Amino acid sequence: MFARLANGNVAPKRVIEGQATNLSRTMHGIAYDSIHDEIVIPVALSGAILVFRADASGETPPLRAIQGTRTRLVRPHTVAVDPVNNEILTADPSNRAIFVFDRAANGNVAPKRMIGGERTGLLDIVGLDVDPKRNVIVAASRKGNGDKVGIFVFDRLANGDVPPRQFIGGPNSKLAHFRQVTIDPDTGNIFLAQQNTRMKQMEAYVLDKPRQGFQANQADEDDDSDSGRLDQMGFIAVYAPDDNGDIPPRAIIKGPGIRLAGAAGVALNPLKKEIIAVGGNGFQTFLLPEFFKPLIRRPATRP
Amino acid sequence: MRRVLISAIVAAAALAASWMPSTQASGSDESSLDDLLAADCVDDAALAIAQAAGRLPQEGGVASDDWPPDAIGGVIPPIRSVSDPFPTFDGLALDTVNNRVIFSDENRHSMLVYDRAAGGASNETTEPVQWVFGPKTQLGFIAGVEVDPVRKEFYTVNNDGGDRMVVFAYDDHGDVQPRRTLILPHQSWDIALAPKRDELAITVQQSNAISLFKRGARGTDAPIRTIRGLATELEDPHGVFFDEQHNELVTANHGNWTQIRPYTPYDPIVTDVGEYKSGAFHPSAITFHPADANGDVPPIRTIEGDLTGLNWPMGIDVDLTHDEIAVANYGDSSVRVFRRTGRGNVQPIRVLRGALTGIVGPVSVAIDTKNDELWVANYGDHSAVVFPRAANGNVRPKRIIRNAPKDTPTCGFTNASAAAYDSKRDEILVPN
Predict the structure, then answer these.
(1) Which segment of A287-296, B35-44, B284-293, B405-414 scores lowest on mean pLDDT?
(2) Closest-CA residue in chain B for A226?
(3) CATH superfamily, with its number, for domain B89-402
(4) Predicted confidence band at B135 (pLDDT cuts at 50, 70, 90)?
(5) Does A3 map to a domain?
(6) A–B interface: beta-carbon pairs under 8 A
(7) H helix or E strand, kind and range, residue B4
(8) Is the ipTM above a cut-off of 0.90?
C-alpha cells in the first residue's frame, strides 16, 4: 500500500504478507470495497479468494476465505467487488468462467452464478469489473491466436452459457496482450491496461510436457524493455460504456510515460481524476480530467 | 545504473514534451485542473509535467502517430511515478573455486557478479565485476541462480515473462546474448545443478513440480523426468538443492496448492479433467525426494510444522560437510538452519534474525564451507549480507554488499500486474 502522492523510489506504507495471510507471492488481481472497507484478492496458486480488513498490515489472517470443492475455483486470477449488490466476482482462466459469490461468503461456498461456456467466448480472463449503476459486468479475455481477444460486456445478472451483449475487439482495436480492466463509476467509461500489441504466445508446456510443435519467440511478449516502438508499446485504452465492435479506443495514454509502467494494471481515483497504471515493477499516475467525462469520439480532423 | 535510469527518465520526459501540442485548454477545464494540481503536486517538476499533461486531452489526436484516430489523450507523461531504479538481489550462487558470487536482479532484469571477498562496512554501492544487462540477455523477472565452476557458466530462470532458462559464461558482460537457452514451464523458480549426474533440477510453482533436464539441454528439449502430483507434497515449490551425495532433491515449499488443468487457456477445452480437487493452504515445508523420482512420488521425509518457523521459505542450500540445511525464510526475515536429516515438526538448530543482522525479505542463501561463511540475498533491502557460517541470533554481518547506497528504499514489486485505489486512506494498493 502506497500513499497516493508517493513519487520516486519509495517503500510501501504497509505490506500484508507472510504465511498466516494465506497470500502467495504471485497474485494478479485486487479490489477495494469502499462501503465495507475491505480488500479482496484472488490467490491463483491456492484456488482461493481472500478478504482482508482494508487497514490490515503485516502477517494478518484474512477475514474470510472462499475456497473448497463447492466453489469450483481452480486458479482465480482477477476479482471485482459489487458492494451495492453485495457480491464478489472472480474470473478463473482454468475454468474459463466468471463466478459470482455472495460478498460475505466464507469457506467452502458455491457461487451464486457462473458465466462460462462456448457462447460466452471467455477464455483467458485476466481482467474483471462490475458496474452496479448500469448493471453490467466487464471482462477482459484473450486467446493466443487472436480470435475473441478483447472486452466482453455481460448483463450483471447473466448466468450460464450466454453471449456477451457487447464485445470490443478485432484488428482495429489493437487489443492483444492486456490485463486489468476497470470502470469509472460515474460515467461507466471502461479503462483497460494493455502491456503490448503482440498477441500473447501460447505457453510452451501443457502440464509437464512441452507443447508439440512449439516455436519459441525470440522476443519476450511480457518483457517491458524492448525496442520502444510506439506501434508495439502498451497503453491505457478508454471506451464509452456502450462501445461495441472492432473499434479503436476513444481515449488513450501511451508513449514513454506509460511504457515505464508496462500497463498491466489500471486503477482510478475519480475524485482527483487520476489514473494509476501499474506494471514493470512500478506504477505511474496520470491526471486526466477529460477521461472522466462522457466520451464522445472527436470528429475526424484529417482528410 | 543510476545514471542509466535517470537518463532514461529525462529522455522520456523530453520525448513526451517534444510531442506536446501547444494550444491552451478551455477555461473551465483548466480551472478545475489547476485546483487538482495545486492540491496534489509534490514539487515544481511534477507540477510542470502535470500542467503539460493536462493540456493534452483538450488537444485531441496523437502527435507521435495517427492511432487511435480522433481519440483524446496520446503521449502523456505521468504526474507521479513510483519505481526503483536500482537492482534488487533475488537469487544467489556462490563459486568458491573461482571466487565469484552471482546474483539475479528481478527489478532491473540483470545479473550481477562480484568477487567473493567483495563488500565490507561501506555505505556506498559495491561495484560488480560483471553486469549482464540489456534486451539481448533475455532476462525478465528472473529468480534462482546456479553456477557451474568447472565450465565457468552461470544460469538463471525467468519466473515470469519469458519462460526460459538462460546460461552465460564468466566473461559475459553487458548486453550479451545467452550462450544457450532452454524453454521451461511457466513459473519456473529455481535451478539446481547435479554435476556428476550431468542434470538440472527446476522447480515449477504453477504445476507444483520439479522438472529434471540434462545439463546441456537447450531450446525446446523436454525434461527427462518430472516429479509432480498430489503424493509429492510439492506445493508452490521455490528453492531446490540437488544433493548428489545422498541422492536427494531438497525443496522449499510455500504450501499453496491447486490443480493445473490439462490445457492452457488457449487450448480446446478438455472435458475429462479427472476428479476436481479444490485449492488448499498448507504449512510451508521442506521436502526430500529421491533424486531418481519420476511421477507422483511421495517425499522420503519432510520438515514441516509450527516448531520449524518456516514462513514463505525461498532459496535453500545444503551444507554436506556439517549436514545442515539453510533456508531463506522470507516471511519473517530470517535464515533458519536445520539438521539435514531432520524430519517432521522440528526446531531449527540456529536462527539468524533481528535488526542487527540486516536480513530483510531474504530470497536466497548460500553456505560457503571453504571460507566458513553464510551468504544471504535480501529482496527487501538493497543488500546481501555475509555472516560467519555458524552465526546465530541477532548478530551483525561481517560484510555487506550493496547494490544501492545504504538506506535506499525499495518498492518491493515482483512483476506487479494490478492495482486498486483505497478512497478512505487515499492509498494505492498493488498486489504482487
Answers:
(1) B35-44
(2) B135
(3) YVTN repeat-like/Quinoprotein amine dehydrogenase (2.130.10.10)
(4) confident
(5) no
(6) 439
(7) helix B2-18
(8) yes
